[in-house]
Amino acid sequence: MRNLWIFISRYNAFFLFIIFFIVGIYLTVKNNAYQRSVTLNSSNEVIGTAYDRLNIFKRYLNLGMVNDSLAAENAKLKSQLLGLTTVDTAKDVKVVDTITNQQYTYLAAKVIKNSITLRNNIMTINKGTVDGIKSGMAVIAPQRGVVGFIRDVSAHLATIQSLLHKDTKISVTLKKNNALGSLVWGDGNFDIKKAFVKEVPNHIKMYVGDSVITSGYGSFPAGILVGRISKANVATNDNFLSAELNLFTDFSTLQYVYVVKDKKADEQKALESIAKPNE
Amino acid sequence: MNSRIIIVNVIRWFLLLFVQIFLLKNMGFYDLSTPFIYVLFLLLLPFGIPNILLYLLAFITGLTLDAFYDTMGVHATACVVLAFVRISFIAISLNRDAIDDPEPSLSYMGFQWFSLYAFLCVIAHHLVLFFLETFRLTEIGYTLMRCGLSCIFTLLLILLVEFIFYRRTPR
């Protein structure tokens, strides 16, 4: 013990140095944010690396279990895929007609080319003769509103002569009183949200806010909402009134449309062609 | 005599720390060379001082600097290292019994001994100081360059001060 004290007192400079040095380092690390963060970081790094190594081993041990679960999931997905390939949900949505036999079926189609900026606008959809589309069929918008008529058809594609075209005329009625008129677009107003109802008889009273629906004379089924009148009783030179209406169809954001298939269209056409004029 | 040494050292302490904190703290060449003249106080403490007192003085001086530099502990540690180097160097280079000079200054010890003494103490102090401040080895080149340039600056200042207060004493 005495020798130890002699030893310590002889080299007291060194031992005192160790003590003070440790105190100094302790103060440095404890009180300075930067040094503290560095020491913590490096220790965290060491621990993090160790955990990372451990994880690699764990992954190897679990490979068998992971394989089994993946195989099971694969089988499940495959059976689901088989189910999906036989049924195409995008084809021929049936609409039940309770009065007569079902007359109209609707076929959803995706718009693959749209056009709204021209005077005569033509769209393209991704369904064609393979899906039973023929020229002249009516096309309506998903929620409400009309779009136009099928114009040309190829095997898998078809073009639509949209309402925004000078040759498009759709027979409409006022929902309130069934007064007939025809819907046209672009007569002095090329706003894609507005169209005109023309050839409304003079004695019909129209008001702003009246709903306009399709009449059912032609390829469109009756009762499809077209728009709402925004400017009523516009006088024209002839014996008819006209009105401006806001369309329900938003042509600028049209993604999907329904092509209306009329089962009795051919029959009707054949029948009507029998009646000769001037007979 | 004894009280005179104490008074001289107290005045020196205040003066050097004042210069260090209010003048040299704002000086530096491109953030590379910053002088630390206050170590001269520790260099010039008398020979007869007990080790424990020397360490305590070094530690307190360092802490005072830390308080002004906002680097708690860095200067204190560096000063403790300087004290250790000082004790070791004096023990090696001088015969303890034959020391009759009051303090290890340029006036008493001569240019050669004093410059080596100052160089070793300052470089130890600066190495610890800059490495503790940087606290990483990735910038070792930059740290060593700062350390070396600061060493040169500090040594120049110390020798300048020593020559200014040079007293020709009969040896």
From TrEMBL, chain A:
> Which Pfam family, just one, is annotated for this protein?
MreC
A GO BP annotation: regulation of cell shape
Q: Which residues cross the membrane?
A: 12-29
**Superkingdom assignment:** Bacteria
Mind listing the UniProt keywords for this protein, alphabetically?
Answer: Cell shape, Membrane, Transmembrane, Transmembrane helix
Matches recorded under Gene3D superfamilies? Rod shape-determining protein MreC, domain 1, Rod shape-determining protein MreC, domain 2
Segments forming domain Rod shape-determining protein MreC beta-barrel core = 111-261
- GO CC annotation: what is one? plasma membrane
Coiled coil (residue ranges): none
Family, according to the entry, reads as follows: Belongs to the MreC family.
Quote the protein name from its UniProt record: Cell shape-determining protein MreC
Q: Which lineage do the record's taxonomy fields give for this organism?
A: Bacteria, Pseudomonadati, Bacteroidota, Sphingobacteriia, Sphingobacteriales
Report the gene name. mreC
From TrEMBL, chain B:
What are the record keywords, sorted?
Membrane, Transmembrane, Transmembrane helix
Q: Which domain of life is it from?
A: Bacteria
The record lists the membrane-crossing segments as 6-24, 36-60, 72-94, 106-131, 143-166
Protein's name according to its UniProt entry: Rod shape-determining protein MreD
Q: Which species is the source of this protein?
A: Pedobacter alluvionis
